[in-house]
Design brief:
By secondary structure, the chain is mainly α. It has helices spanning 2-8, 14-30, 38-47, 49-81, 94-113, 117-137, 143-159, 165-173, 180-202, 210-232, 239-242, 246-280, 286-295, 297-308, 310-317, 320-329. The protein is built from 16 helices and no strands.
Length: 333
């Protein structure tokens, strides 16, 4: 029974939520500053443990609510296409699932309200977009993809609240804090990437044209290219030529290599299945593209985080084994 619930809320995908949070926080703190790891920990310590726990809880519940309501909306179709899934198979009662879906949504808002009213409002925006996608726009070509992109973009903005409501305000309306473009750079990259992935995924279940696959791929590769550009222009790259010590220069050099490998790995894992789907034009070739792209979110997060602080990329990659283990244990039928 527990495994069925984990499948229903796509528990493995929670790892990508945590890597999203890490990427946006690292970018916010280090993109325009030095590399002292103490700065991030000092900021989190200032906000307090309770603040961090409520924020992580709110993000997790928003994600799980979105996944559960997605399956509730699709239960009729899944009885035909995916009869072994927890809801159409009857392993989880439909009424119970609706109740849990409501509790997850309410729990997300309550958790956000425990931080402050601004975070509550931000969570409300994210939840509204989630429900708009699940219940209204998901099956509308292009509009559904735009809505899902807005969901992940708004959640990344919401995640800035982990550093305090002032960061949320700077991202939304600007101000005297970190540069506005720095704060929204990662949310924009993630939103464009998710738009591309979702647009391509639409072609699994509806007739489409190659131009849509081409545009979806362009968005995914464009987001990866933006990460590559951030890496090439990262401030810490300049320390290769005038570092404080040989050890420091070697460390920065290895970080540059890590970022380059992440960039190449992302392009490689998406390019080949996408090219095969583009050549064949068959819907059955779309699944591998979507799988590769969704699995690539962690690598994209690590790449972007590395451009601000190499240790941020390392921290994200440390979550990769948990993601891979989850994929093996919590497999969706």
């Amino acid at each position: 029974m527990l495994l069925d619930w984990l499948k229903l809320v796509r528990a493995t995908g929670l790892v990508t939520i945590y890597t999203n949070i890490t990427a946006v926080v690292v970018m916010a703190v280090y993109a325009n500053e030095g590399l002292n790891p103490k700065w991030l920990f000092d900021r989190l310590h200032k906000e307090g443990v309770a603040h961090i726990l409520w924020m992580v809880t709110a993000s997790s519940l928003l994600y799980m609510a979105g996944m559960l309501w997605n399956d509730l909306a699709d239960v009729g179709r899944d009885r035909v296409l995916h009869p072994r899934r927890p809801l159409p198979s009857g392993r989880i009662n439909l009424g119970t699932a609706y109740l849990v879906g409501v509790l997850l949504a309410v729990g997300a808002l309550v958790s956000a309200a425990m931080v402050d009213v601004h975070v509550f409002h931000a969570a409300g925006v994210v939840l509204s977009l989630i429900m708009l996608y699940d219940l209204v726009t998901k099956d509308i070509p292009w509009i559904g993809s735009l809505t899902m992109a807005a969901v992940r973009f708004s959640h990344a903005i919401f995640a800035l609240s982990l550093l305090g409501s002032d960061y949320l305000g700077w991202a939304v309306v600007g101000g005297d804090g970190p540069r506005h473009t720095t704060l929204i750079a990662y949310p924009v990259i993630l939103g464009v990437y998710i738009f591309g992935v979702t647009l391509v995924s639409e072609l699994e279940s509806r007739p489409g044209r190659r131009i849509e696959l081409l545009i979806g791929g362009a968005c995914m590769f464009g987001a990866v290219a933006a990460g590559g550009w951030l890496l090439a222009t990262a401030r810490w790259i300049t320390h290769l030529s005038h570092g404080d010590s040989t050890l420091y220069v070697v460390g920065v050099g290895l970080s540059a290599v890590m970022g380059t490998v992440l960039f190449g790995l992302l392009v490689w894992r998406i390019w080949w299945p996408w090219l095969a789907a583009l050549r064949s034009g068959r819907s059955e070739q779309v699944g591998p593209v979507v799988g590769a792209a969704l699995g690539g979110i962690i690598f994209l997060d690590a790449l972007v985080a590395t451009t601000a602080h190499p240790l941020g990329g390392v921290a994200i990659l440390c979550l990769l084994p948990l993601f891979l283990l989850g994929k093996r244990v919590v497999r969706m039928d």
